[in-house]
Amino acid sequence: MKTNGWQKVFAFTLVQHIKTKAFIIGNIITCLIVATLCVLTNVLPAVLDKDNGSGGIFGGDSSDDHIESFDAVYIYDDSAVLTDEDNAFVESLIPGKLAVSGKGLDELVKELETSENVRAAAQITPMLGENDAVIGYDIKTYYTSAASGSAADELNETLRGLVNRRVLLNAGVAPEKYEQTQISINTSRIEAGAKEWNFIQSAMNYFVPIVVSLVLFMLIFSYGQIVAQSIATEKTSRVMELLLTSVRPLAVVIGKVLAMCTVSFAQFILIGVVGSASFLISAPFGWLGSAMQIAKNPEIQQALENAAQGVGSVQTSEMQIAEAMNDLATGLSPLNIILIILIFLLGFIFFSLIAALVGASVSRMEDLQQAMGPYSILGVLGMYLAYFPVIFNVDSLDTGAATTNPVQIFSYFFPVSSPFALPSAIMLGTLTPVQSVIAVAVLAAAVVLVAVIVSKVYEAIILHNGNRIKFGDILKMAVRK
Questions:
Q1: Cβ 67 vs Cβ 44: under 8 Å
Q2: Cα distance between residue 40 and residue 52, in whole Å
């Protein structure tokens, strides 16, 4: 296998590509977009939450969130279930604000539409079953645009508790026994042997694979197309014939693939650095800063340690965020980072070698788009295998049972999809270290196989002129040799 001269092709291709205006401007725009998105992702939730008066995304006490913020509250009890005692309780929560309106509900709601005051109107109606038997109650609260939705929710919850209490008392439950009937019952399903996830962890396990697979697909697939276009352009313009007088054909593809691999990897690192830097810089003003402060709380750290040892569980939203951050930090260990980089490089080489064969198989630029059809289908298939199993497996994201999806497991070990699926699986701990190593080994073996095919047939097809060589013909040539 003669590859002398690939260094010259590598240096020439690298310099020619990175000095183009399109590459420079494209990277600047990409970095600006990534930085903006990371800052908005970090800061916007906190800003919006403060605007809603909730005191921050991690909770807080704000009077705008409670029913006492209303200037007036009107209750239309069409069920007649509430008593004077219940109304007095509501009055105690909002002294002087429980009002009586001589208007009908519909008329009052229309008035609330244009009112600039902080008001609400609540309606309690019975739900009737057979023989007009009451089988439940419906509570609706209408509030003005100046009021807080959280305050309306609290009013709803207050009325729901009062109706529930009154129904039980009317059924014969003694008042002193009422509190014993108010117990909270949570249900969940957990596959045996699977890790239980909280809400934040479930969200991460849903969105991270989707985002990572899309980003890697755009980098690997787009640069693979650049390799194919570069080789096809040089071949059809006769530049390849001059080039082959000083270097071997196989050296050309090696130099170009490695040059584009270097460029794409540098862009991958650049995007990661810009995104991380902008996220960390905006941290004091966003949810990340709050989460970091929460994670340092001794009580939460102790709760995390207890949860890791199977003692107790992480319950509060703050603890859930801290637990999710702790898992993500564990997933980004030095070993996992090395594996992710290796997977990216192997995936790029895998697709770029195939793209190089496609580019060398055409003799006219007009044929390149048609020749890229199978390559495009292959890349899109790999991305979809990494993407769609997560989307269609939402119902199992309450635990680690998502790993039982056969298609998702297949995507980790299938070389066409593993470059897009493996990085997120390693970050999130979906695969064990042994499984990760096996998956990377399978991808490496596929890269070696493609490299062998390229070494056998590239010199023959790069010099071919005439009709486009089909992919099946290339495989036949490799087998014969």
A1: no
A2: 17
- Cβ(248)–Cβ(5) under 8 Å? yes
- Give the Å distances, CA to CA, from 380 to 198, 217, 328, 386, 480: 32, 8, 28, 10, 30
Q: Which residues on neighbouring strands pair with residue 120, listed in sequence order?
A: 73, 143
**Helix, strand, or coil here: 384?**
helix
List of domains in the chain: 6-45+196-480 (no CATH), 63-181 (3.40.190)
Question: Alpha-carbon distance 398 to 140, whole Å?
Answer: 31
> Mapping DSSP to helix (H, G, I), strand (E, B) and coil, where does residue 74 land?
strand
Q: Can you spell out the DSSP letters for 344-361?
A: HHHHHHHHHHHHHHHHHT
279 SS3 class: helix
pLDDT value at position 142?
Answer: 94
Rounded to a whole number of angstroms, the CA Rg of the chain reads: 32
Sheet architecture: strand order including 119-128: 98-99, 72-77, 119-128, 134-143
| pLDDT beneath 70: ranges in the chain | 1-4, 41-42, 44-65, 186-209, 235-246, 249, 283-332, 389-405, 459, 462-481
Query: Residue by residue, what is the 3-state secondary structure of 386-438?
Result: HHHHHHCCHHHCCEHHHHHCHHHHHHHHCCCCHHHHHHHHHHCCCCCHHHHHH
* Contact status, residue 39 vs residue 288, Cβ threshold 8 Å: no
Contacts with 81 (C-beta within 8 Å, 6 or more apart), sequence order: 124, 126, 137, 163, 166, 167
DSSP element (H, E) containing 124: strand 119-128
Model pTM score: 0.61
**How much is the pLDDT for 194?**
55
CA geometry: angle 472, 355, 479, nearest 5 deg: 35
Q: What per-residue confidence (pLDDT) applies to 37?
A: 80
